[in-house]
Automatic annotation (TrEMBL):
UniProt keyword annotation of Phosphoprotein present: no
Pfam family, any one: FKBP_C
The entry's keywords: Isomerase, Rotamase
Catalytic activity, as annotated: [protein]-peptidylproline (omega=180) = [protein]-peptidylproline (omega=0)
EC number: 5.2.1.8
Coiled coil: none
GO terms for MF: peptidyl-prolyl cis-trans isomerase activity
Protein name (database record): peptidylprolyl isomerase
């Protein structure tokens, strides 16, 4: 009975977060797994390797790197991904996991993305930072 109560509480908290994200138009970041002894955190310009699963508010999965076994690699903060990722992945440690709830304005907005992501969709991503590659300065 206690487990059921906890599950219901988590579900209600998740729904409240979704409503806040869509109502306020703000990015929501939840840390799912912290990393002890983190000496390097992501910053703009880092090459990052991310595993992710993306879903819509109703739970429909639209993409995931996990079945492919190959993390997505991109330069953080350079507009190579949606704004919600460029903002929501800053200050992460290797091995850290986050949940991002991204409002349409920081996702695909009014245009959506193909048939999988309708216009004005709130996007939910479970992400894991696999690796950071930092360019050394001369």
């Amino acid at each position: 009975m206690m487990e059921f109560s906890r599950l219901m509480l988590l579900c209600l908290a998740g729904l409240a977060l979704l409503q806040l994200a869509s109502a306020e138009g703000k990015l929501k970041i939840g840390v799912k797994k912290r990393v002890d002894n983190c000496s390097v955190r992501t910053k703009k310009g880092d090459l990052v390797h991310m595993h992710y699963t993306g879903t819509l508010e109703d739970g429909t999965e639209f993409d995931s790197s996990i079945p492919r076994g190959d993390p997505l690699t991109f330069t953080l903060g350079m507009g190579q991904v949606i704004k919600g990722w460029d903002q929501g992945l800053l200050n992460m440690c290797e091995g850290e996991k986050r949940k991002l709830i991204i409002p349409p304005e920081l996702g695909y907005g009014e245009r959506g993305a193909g048939e999988k992501i309708p216009p004005n969709s709130v996007l939910i991503f479970e992400v894991e930072l696999v690796k950071i590659e930092r360019k050394t300065e001369l």
